[in-house]
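Continuing the series of single-chain predictions for the mutant panel. This is the parent chain; the variants come on the following pages.
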Amino acid sequence: MRVGVVIPSYNVGERLRNVLSKTLGHVPKDRIFVVDDGSTDHTAEVVRQAGVNRLSHSHNRGKGAALRTGFREALDSNLDAVFVIDGDGQHDPDRIPAFLRVMRETGCDAVFGVRQFCLGKMPADRIVSNTLSSLIASAVVRLKLRDSQCGYRLFRADVLRRMEIASDKFEVETEMLIKTVQMGCRIQTCPVPTVYFGRGSHIHRLTDTFRFCRLILRSL
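Parent structure:
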């Protein structure tokens, strides 16, 4: 199976270096696509040194916009499946073989990462928000989901070719999940480590919650 990896990145610098180093242990460099979403740090230099594909936005447009850019390029590379891995180090590339094993053994169309929601591994406010959003998304798609917001995912290429992504920001996680289900695709999950670094998030609580609610209402 020819797989590629799309890595949306915004001001992740040295954390991206480690992500790329690990990813290169599983995927050839010509099939790794880093979307530099208007970074103002040395993200571009990290990508250049790694020798992988760099796609860039002139200014920060958001994760959804970065994924559209990355998918467009990756799907032109004759791939069978595409991973999404964040560039900030929260997604361990060493889980790539486990995702592929799930897809091969079950014949599913998409594999979604599932984290542990427990104190000590995830901040309390994130546990609450992720649990509530997962419950709401589960009700919308009529499918029990333990973690609807984990961005570590693997899709068959034909699923992404049929999917029209409209979201620009972080609500894209929920949009892609809902559309995968609505398209009749078979979904499986794969456990992934829960990794946080105690630093600020690019998520804006008020505006991104509003976008999430608007997406849910439109889906209903």
